[in-house]
Amino acid sequence: MKAIIQKAYGSPEVLEPRDIDRPSIGDHDVSVRVHAAGVHRGDWLVMRGLPYIARLGYGLLTPKNSVAGMEVAGKVEGIGKGVTQFQSGDEVFGWCNGSFAEYVSVSEDALAVKPANITLEQAAGFPISAFAALQAVRDTGRIQPGHRVLIIGASGGVGTFAVQIAKSFGAEVTGVCSGKNVEMVRSIGADHVIDYAHEDFADGERRYDMILDTAGNRSESVVTFLTRVRRPC
């Protein structure tokens, strides 16, 4: 099969197409014929080997996984003998190692059946960012109807999903983003949108039940503002 291989860390030139063997599957794995693969910041970081501390996980000098890609959508073409959730022909999406290839072997617990109302191309862009947002909003934040939620970085990969998930739970959502993305964040459901270049979200007297900082902001504004939330997450 054809795949995009990475043997070293560096610029995009380290990625190259090659013919390799189709991956085998274990008892609890699923063989997926790749229709679409998501590309996001995580792929860029792995390609570059950044941050350096992360190489403890994905390879000190070279990547442990030679085939690039983390998000996949496609059709099941084979299952391990222990797989119970899927069967050949199912359209699925999820995360894995090596999605930039014609076929990929995926653990069954890293896959879900694709909803009928979205395309495989759309599904390939969901898994990592959407799951991170779901964990943050539903599992850690324990959002309830009527809660006030502040999402910093609301126009990013995790942030856009977080806005929509919080709204689906009945929360009142305030999104923080750059001016060029204000209308987009409003269009996906945010009740209030703050352009961080012109307004400090830490000003004023608003209180929030949850603050989700997807931008990794460690500014004095965030630290100060955390003292004003009603229920820190």
Question: What is the structure about, briefly put?
Answer:
This protein has 233 residues and is an alpha/beta fold.
Would you write up a description of this structure?
By secondary structure, the chain is of the alpha/beta class. It folds into two domains: 2-123, Quinone Oxidoreductase, Chain A, domain 1 (Alpha-Beta Complex), CATH 3.90.180; 129-228, NAD(P)-binding Rossmann-like Domain (Rossmann fold, 3-Layer(aba) Sandwich). Helices cover 24% and strands 26% of the residues. It contains seven helices and eleven strands. It has helices at 41-48, 55-58, 120-124, 127-140, 157-168, 182-187, 220-225; strands at 2-6, 15-19, 29-38, 71-79, 91-95, 103-107, 111-113, 148-152, 172-177, 192-195, 210-213. A five-stranded antiparallel beta sheet has the order 6-3-4-5-7. A four-stranded parallel beta sheet has the order 10-9-8-11. Helix 4 crosses helix 5 (157-168). The model is unreliable at 220-233 (pLDDT under 50).
List the helices and strands and how they pair.
Layout: E1 2-6, E2 15-19, E3 29-38, H1 41-48, H2 55-58, E4 71-79, E5 91-95, E6 103-107, E7 111-113, H3 120-124, H4 127-140, E8 148-152, H5 157-168, E9 172-177, H6 182-187, E10 192-195, E11 210-213, H7 220-225
Parallel strand pairs: 8-9, 8-11, 9-10
Antiparallel strand pairs: 1-2, 3-4, 3-6, 4-5, 5-7
Helix pairs in contact: 4-5
